[in-house]
Design brief:
This protein is α+β, with helices and mostly antiparallel strands. It has 7 helices and 4 strands, in the order ααααββαββαα.
């Protein structure tokens, strides 16, 4: 798992300061919105990395695997609590075509083992190695700068009112 950290204490302090402001709710909402927007380029890059993954083109039991995995991709911003920060995450997929936790397995270096359809033979299959981790790691500096810029903009809005 890749964690992109920005000074969590500074973000928490900013969140506390927002609570004290007259229009703190609006400022908090705007900050959260700006933090999520700062991660949009990362979200787009992960989306393209996953959609660029090779596929056999089989559609079994409904939607394609990659499309289903991408439905769980979201940017999240938290201003309080233990998990303060902005993060990009993909929700687990529940038993999708007998494929538990597809986002994690598709990202795994090791791949996953499964039985060959209709036979008692097991094989190891490897997806697009680190489609999520590698994408985030390469753009980490840009994403961190965008999050800091969103924090700085909110801090400027607060100080202008003083």
């Amino acid at each position: 798992m890749i964690e992109l950290s920005v000074d969590a204490q500074a973000l928490q302090a900013l969140g506390r300061r927002l609570r004290d402001e007259e229009d703190g709710k609006k400022l908090r909402r705007d900050l959260a919105k700006n933090l999520r927007a700062a991660l949009e380029p990362a979200k787009d890059e992960v989306r393209s990395a996953l959609m660029g993954m090779a596929t056999a083109g089989l559609e079994v039991d409904g939607a394609p695997l990659r499309t289903t995995v991408l439905k769980g991709l979201k940017a999240e911003a938290r201003l309080t609590g233990r998990k303060t920060g902005a993060r990009l995450k993909i929700k687990k997929t529940p038993e999708l075509r007998n494929f538990k936790n597809a986002p994690k397995r598709l990202n795994s270096k090791k791949g996953w083992r499964h039985r060959v359809f209709g036979q008692d033979v097991w094989v190891t299959q490897v997806g697009e190695r680190e489609y999520f981790d590698r994408t985030i790691r390469t753009g980490q500096g840009r994403y961190r700068a965008a999050v800091r810029a969103a924090m700085a903009e909110t801090a400027r809005r607060i100080t202008r009112k003083v």
